[in-house]
Design a protein that fits this description.
CATH topology: 2-enoyl-CoA Hydratase, Chain A, domain 1
Shape: globular
Largest sheet: 7 strands, mixed
CATH architecture: Alpha-Beta Complex
Oligomer: single chain
Number of domains: 1
Helix content: 40-55%
CATH class: Alpha Beta
Strand content: 15-25%
Radius of gyration: 17 Å
Number of strands: 9
């Protein structure tokens, strides 16, 4: 089954699925479900301006790829309705805010945190990279701030990023402009395979490190920036 394609094509709308990690390009793909900006470009060309139903169940991934996808979707002419089926974590939460409407069942999650990444170099290189991460955080903060409820200020969102904040549908609707619906019993987003829980996600660095080791073996550049 392909998880990123036009489904249920009608005269007025297309269904679009983000059901894997967000990666820079095909060199970084480990599974068919992981998607990159080039694929989004091709898909939106097929959609031809018709309304989009965008379904998200993603841990996030590359910040630069995610921002590119966010801007592609923002520019898209058709109406965009985003449905969070399980989780929109990290940069996937940014992609979600490209929608004109965001719908979250009570038992789905939005997770936001500070961008993180890795670099090899001397002390000066590391300090410069910290500045880069701070700059990325400001870009992401701008997007979140544009979608907050009245009374939620930028400093509040910044605190939530620093704390790595998990919001179920009800909690997300208190902070962001999302529509919360009844509990979704059809989507098992906490699976035995990915063990996507509060504790598991904070330990994803272990998985990232193992991926980076394999990337080194494949000869692909090992720098990464993720949110």
């Amino acid at each position: 089954m392909k998880f990123f394609e036009v489904k249920n094509k009608t005269e007025k709308s297309f269904d679009l699925y983000f059901y894997g990690d967000i990666v820079k390009d095909s060199l970084y793909k480990w599974t068919e479900e992981e998607k990159c900006p080039k694929e989004v470009t091709e898909l939106l060309e097929q959609a031809g301006g018709k309304d989009l139903n965008i379904f998200i169940n993603s841990d996030g991934g590359s910040v630069t790829a995610g921002l590119a996808i966010y801007h592609q979707l923002k520019r898209y002419a058709g109406k965009k309705t985003v449905y969070i089926d399980g989780i929109a974590a990290s940069i996937a939460s940014v992609i979600a805010f490209a929608g004109d409407n965001i719908i979250m069942p009570e038992n789905t999650y939005l997770m936001i945190h500070k961008p993180h990444g890795g670099i090899m170099g001397n002390a000066d290189d590391c300090r410069r990279y910290a500045d880069v991460l701070d700059g990325i955080e400001e870009i992401i903060l701008n997007i979140y701030e544009e979608n907050t409820k009245e009374g939620i200020n930028r400093e509040k969102i910044k605190e939530m990023l620093s704390a790595e904040t998990w919001l179920n549908g009800v909690q997300a609707a208190e902070v962001f402009n999302v529509e919360v619906t009844a509990e979704n019993k059809a989507v098992a987003y906490l699976t035995d395979e990915n063990k996507l829980s509060f504790e598991a996600h904070t330990k994803m660095d272990k998985l990232l490190k193992s991926k980076l080791e394999l990337i080194k073996i494949k000869g692909v550049k090992n720098e990464s920036t993720r949110v």
